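Case study B.
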Amino acid sequence: MKADGKKLIWKEYQKEIADDHYFYARSCIRQNFFPGSEKAFTRIMKDELGKDLCDNQHHTSCTGIGYHTDVVPFETTMTVIARQFSLMTEAGYSNYIASCITSFGLYTEIIETWKHFPETLEKTRDFLYKATGREFTVPNNLAHASDIIYKFRNEIAAKAKYRLVDKNTGSPLKVVEHIGCHYSKMFPHKGVGGAEYPYVLTGMIESWGGEVVDYPERRHCCGFGFRQYAIQANRGFSIACSRKKFDSMEPYEPDMIITNCPGCPMFLDRWQYALSEMEGRTYGKDKQGIPVFTYEEVAGMLLGYDPWQLGLQVHQVPAEPLLDKIGIEYDPEAKFKGPNGEDMGKPAAPSYLKFYQE
Amino acid sequence: MQDSASRFGYFVSPDRQIDFDRNNHEVASKVAAAEPGLNWCISCGTCAATCTAAKFTDFSLRRIILQVKRGELKGLAREAQKCMLCGKCQLVCPRGISTRNLILQINRVLQSENL
Amino acid sequence: MSKHVAVVGAGIAGIEAASILNAMGHSITLIEKNEILGGHINHWHQLFPNRRQGRDLLEKLYEKMDDSIQVQYGKEITSIKPFSGKFIVTAADGWVTNADAVLMATGFDLFDAHKKEEYGYGIYDHVITSADLEEIFIQGEGLNPRLGKDPQRIGFIHCVGSRDEKAGNIYCSKVCCITAVKQAIEIKELYPSVEVYCFYMDLRMFGRHYEELYQEAQEKHNIQFIRGRLSEASENKQGGVVVKVEDTLLGKPLKLTLDLLVLMSGMVAPVAVTNMRDKLGLAKVDDGFLKPVDPHTQANLSELPGFFMAGTATGPKTITDTLTDARSAALEIDRFLKEII
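Model:
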């Protein structure tokens, strides 16, 4: 593989990312799936980078899941999103960050729609005003939260306590990057690095000392895709997508997977458990699985945040082998204790997938 | 593990992609050695259009030839036996392929390989 | 006094037209941006359908060229301006000539395969273009220096940058299908045990003896044709190229791994020529090529009297068609020059 070839493509797909004063919109599902990630993001933004970030409690779902499963009409979605923008406008911001990939895709789609069909923007203004009495301006700058971490990847590297490096051998960790479909497949020029060879996570991995694994099924969807997962009978398709990816990346012996979507880390992580229970098939060394992380978790880990405060205990594939490999300190006893030290109980061990430190 | 799958309420969907690297190419090379017409086929479908069996069943010589060439052999032995060897397809084939010999050779090789 | 014709481009169209116009008694300046004559054919090892050497064809054309033809090398034409019944032709280095007529024999550029990002040209080690493969044939050392081993599986992708809205080109480049067949046969002759796969949307074997060459590829060389267009290529751990297509005749997606992937790059209009066309206010076609006044009866004429075109300047053509077109342009120019006397 020729690295220079990818660099030429990356040059074509550079986007403008605002450098301060952000309005942050959270994801519907990430706080359940990966409860420490968004908290880590706000902490990095405020404490490490000293940025002004408005974390507004009044915003709602963007309706993305409903929109993509055909239960919410586009006009409704536009009006809901217009309301998010009105919250941004009222708070005095114009740079909007979405935590969720699907939200980011949907905001992009709607802003583009308004650009090409100004009458839909006027209609949306009308709907929102009639329903809520609110008014809004369209953001000056729209970014996904991973764009922001990408922008400040070198600042984070400079402050980091650890690197994506094997502490014993000093060699870079082998990292699979997985990009959510709605990040740039719909609008390649709105994503850092485009759609075929996205650079947003690769840039972080390079900056933080790791080595990116490019494997044949890299571009394949994780299988989440809303429709197929929402209906139980279709989940076999969803899990088969993840398995295709695991089978393809396995020969490279990756140390970890980093993702930038709400659904992908959930499914790439939990399906490893389901596959092991259904087929007895495990991936990774010694049946440990391949640990899966959000980019905020990785940034937090490297900055020395407590792994349990980052929420790594809710991962299905245990993170400890990777923490040990990097040399990140943690208290094994505290894994299943609550914030005040209370015992939260220990989940049952899976049949095949290794449960670290049983 | 069957139980686990039913416990989850779904199975991992089988992959329908043709995995050409893993598929069996022995059958195709043995058939081609006995009847080179296998490689002349241009998938025009004239054979299937004229075939008596194709009017009432899924039988298609065009598809059988492609399946042999791609190594997609599941259920093929049974399918290939449905030909009644009337020879109508041989009359219409624009590439002059000896289609009767071809189907006989496909049957022979599939059986000798116990497929 | 003989009339002066500026022939822009010394590929096969320019050479052929210049030779004929010169023999008709006109004064000819043949203007070439490179330092050699012959254009793309210099880089083509063998030509379809009879597999003659590209060099051999060029020599045949050079034999007909009279010394009285004035050839200007290294002159990239940047501007052509009509001026009181003549044309002022200017090159990038400041060189200028006046002509009574101009023939645009400006040819084509190869489609830049980097633009099909998902095919990985310039990224994956073993993805090359049809033009790269011709260079390899010319070098005569086979594929081993590149692959480090005898190839076992090679794939050709038809229609790269042609018939593709995403690439901005909806037209067929005409020569790629038969070139793929020719190159596949050459590969089989070099490496008889190699498996060769051609991935196509439609096979366009329109020319004389093309179908015969295609049959030879199937019957004699066991070259496999799979109807399906490449969706994406990727590289596996061993450096093999994994391709994904749909086998549209079987109705199933298919993947296979190749040692070498060859992209059949199509033809595109040179940007500089399109710009010149627009500056002169000539009729446009969406794809950037020059547009003749009438595609049947005035295929070499523009709306501007004295401004002619020949060969692939007006769209993809085979060598046979290009040479025929060049001769037809020469006749049109001769008629025009006689009329203005």
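The domain at 22-112 of chain B is CATH 1.10.1060.10 (Fumarate Reductase Iron-sulfur Protein; Chain B, domain 2). The remaining cases will be described in the next quarterly update.
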